[in-house]
Automatic annotation (TrEMBL):
Protein name stated in the entry: Uncharacterized protein
Keywords: Membrane, Transmembrane, Transmembrane helix
Record field: transmembrane: 24-51, 87-104, 116-135, 147-167, 179-208, 260-276, 282-315, 383-402, 422-440
Length: 473
């Protein structure tokens, strides 16, 4: 990262800038008169790019602080083709890439990846290049949906790279973690209000965050999908930040900070429970157990009991609605029956025929079904998704990734002196929750929560030496 006083441009380019500024200003003045809104947006984008160019750590701050608040806005909701979170990612990543090219002095120094980075890269390759190459080899049609889903783990590798590149100092890591807590706190509060159906929060979310409108929202009544538009992702985000809050708690003695962390801890517990899913409750329990053991405080798990008792009277509508599912004729919630039927009808027959499970069926994790409100049926089993999307290579890549992250996270979280240790606490709890909840859904790639998880991996610096410079200059 450029420190104050460091030249923003290479010497040759810096001499050209003053001569280009005057005609650019004239053109900008004319454009403002003719096209005020597009010009204003361009100015905002250029201003953001300029700030990121000057201080690359701002890209990490932006991704961590803004993504949870906009990740649920679907493609076409506000911006054609892309989600707002993807626009931010491209803007920040493109700016940093261009900055690196402009400031290149001719020397090539390839970074040496650590084991976590190799594992992420392997996940990306086995979920995209390998299955697409196989589809091409056997002449299976490759759809636009396949291409989009093949890019998902590359996107998270991109998130990891931007945070890893931009954040270098202990203070910056700590600032990123507090930004993460603040953003997740807003998401959690919105989710609780949404689940309780008060203050018109549901109407706001339907208007800005639900691509399929009120009919889709009705399917998730009394559930906190919040600004991520997905209850499971909201719960995952709460659990990740709950772990981070605990990590920061043991690394500070400041009373004011501890009060804020305790309040945040409650919001995250309530937010996870307000998601109204059994899998989210299981994930919350797994996350608390993981945090308790990695921080050497097994008694922390006992807090789940008073926490649940405190949450029950407030979240009673949410809990009672979910428990009512067991009053069906079969004694099993209809959502569980539907999930199993979808797997048996749309995915398992094709997956386990003609040895498709070896190299996968296709990257797209959904099949078009016209009778569905959304027009698709998604794979509601994370491990089925791994086999469907990339076969045994992708499944093995995930298991190795989980092993590497868990071992490195455990070691790093034992450091009780640095903010990176707090990030590692979140990463360790996150991978424990993901491994368990992948039995239900593809939690590894949930929008918003996956961004936060890969960002935490970068902040924790797992498997690599902590940098003490000013970042990615």
């Amino acid at each position: 990262m450029a420190s104050p006083g460091t030249a923003l441009f290479a010497p040759g380019l810096a001499r050209v800038v003053p001569f280009a500024a005057l005609p650019a200003a004239v053109l900008l003045g004319a454009a403002v008169v003719l096209l005020p809104v597009p010009v204003l947006l361009c100015v905002v984008v250029l201003a953001l790019a300029a700030v990121v160019w000057w201080r690359p750590v701002v890209a990490a701050y932006g991704l961590i602080g803004v993504t949870p608040l906009v990740a649920g806005i679907d493609r076409g909701g506000l911006i054609p083709v892309l989600r707002p979170s993807e626009v931010l990612l491209l803007l920040f990543g493109g700016t940093l890439a261009l900055r690196a090219v402009v400031r290149w002095r001719g020397a090539v120094r390839l970074p040496r990846p650590n084991r976590v980075e190799v594992a992420i890269l392997l996940l990306a390759v086995t979920s995209s290049i390998l299955p697409l190459a196989w589809m091409g080899l056997i002449q299976r049609e490759i759809s636009r949906d396949d291409i989009l889903h093949a890019l998902v783990l590359w996107k998270y590798l991109f998130v990891y790279a931007i945070v890893r590149y931009g954040v270098g100092t202990e203070a910056q890591v700590r600032r990123c973690l507090w930004l993460s807590l603040a953003a997740a706190g807003v998401v959690g509060l919105i989710g609780v209000l949404e689940a309780l159906g008060i203050f018109g929060v549901q109407g706001m979310l339907v208007r800005f965050y639900d691509l399929f409108g009120a009919s889709d929202r009705e399917l998730r009544a009394n559930q906190a999908s919040s600004t991520l538009s997905l209850p499971g992702a909201t719960a995952d985000l709460m659990i990740l930040n709950l772990a981070v809050a605990r990590g920061l708690w043991v690394r500070t003695s400041a009373a004011r900070q501890r009060m804020l962390l305790a309040a945040a801890f409650l919001v995250f517990v309530f937010g996870a429970l307000a998601a109204g899913e059994f899998s989210s409750t299981i994930g919350l329990f797994v996350g608390i157990v993981a945090v308790a053991f990695v921080s050497g405080a097994p008694g922390l798990t006992l807090l789940a009991i008073p926490g649940s008792l405190l949450a029950y009277p407030i979240l009673r509508p949410v809990i009672e609605r979910r428990l009512s599912g067991f009053q069906s004729a079969s004694g099993v919630p209809a959502s569980w029956v539907g999930r199993l039927n979808n797997l048996r009808t749309y995915f398992w027959p094709e997956l386990f025929s003609r040895w498709n499970f070896v190299l996968g069926v296709r990257p797209s994790a959904r099949v078009p079904v016209s009778s569905q409100i959304t027009g698709y049926v998604w794979i509601e089993s994370g491990y089925t998704w791994l086999l469907w999307g990339g076969g045994i290579p992708l499944l093995c890549s995930f298991l190795w990734f989980a092993n590497v992250v868990a071992r490195a996270g455990w070691r790093a979280a034992r450091d009780l002196t640095s903010a990176r240790g707090a990030a590692a606490t979140g990463a360790f709890a996150g991978i424990a929750v993901i491994v368990v909840l992948m039995a239900f859904d593809p939690h590894l790639t949930y929008r918003g929560s996956a961004d936060a998880f890969f960002g935490l991996l970068a902040l924790a610096g797992l498997g690599g030496a902590a940098r003490d410079d000013q970042g990615g200059a």
